[in-house]
Amino acid sequence: MSLHMNWRLASRLSVVTLAILVVILVTVLQRNAAAPHVSTSTTSNSSGLQGTNLDNRLAPNFQLTDQMGKSVSLAQFKGKPVVLSFLYTHCPDVCPLTAERLHTTMLKLGKQAQDVGILAVSTDPKRDTADEALKFSRAHNMQDYWHFLIGKEQTLSPIWSQYSIDAQQQQQIVNHTMVLYVIDKQGRERVLLGSDFTPDQMTKDLQILLQE
């Protein structure tokens, strides 16, 4: 009798557990369906820009030092489209790939490349010295195309916050938000691209902004 009751109890518990799992699964699927999906392959607005559409707010200004020891501010690029990224020189994977894709983008733009600003803000203030930034830039043929911007943590941290960048040092790796802001000639944030962007997508976006 006890064995029979235990079996019936176990059976009922199994049914209840299954029902709970179904409810959880449905809830998760509904949340995923409602959550915004970041895609760099779809046209985000009527202008034809590809990426996640932003609110056209003015991009927060900042001033840092680049790989050549030159003082550089975002505001000085008014009148030019700007690509703003956040990288570090000792990155083993995504950052070098991003630099290579940006280099390919510059080659695709040809003479128009001189009318575009490319900024890379460090996410590793302890190791990203001017020498390291220059070495990284040369390794990816970007020394003549971008400004790799460095500074102390107390200087960089507020900039990360303004652009919703999370940067956390974990031993030799810096886990950081990997996105690129595409900013128009008026200094407005237009679209956001992920680390999976292609040079063709970036080239098209910049060409559109150059014509505005």
Question: How would you characterize the overall build of this protein?
Answer:
- The protein is an alpha+beta fold and 212 residues long.
- The protein folds into two domains: 1-35; 52-211, Glutaredoxin (3-Layer(aba) Sandwich).
- It has five helices and ten strands; from the N terminus they run H-E-E-E-E-H-E-H-E-H-E-E-E-E-H.
- It has helices at residues 2-34, 94-109, 130-139, 153-162, 199-211, and strands at residues 52-53, 63-65, 71-73, 82-87, 117-122, 146-149, 167-170, 173-176, 179-183, 189-194.
- Strands 1-10-9-4-5-6 form a six-stranded mixed beta sheet.
- Strand 9 (179-183) and strand 10 form a beta hairpin.
- The longest helix is centred in the first third of the chain and has 33 residues, at 2-34.
- The protein is globular, with a radius of gyration of 23 Å.
- The relative contact order is 0.19.
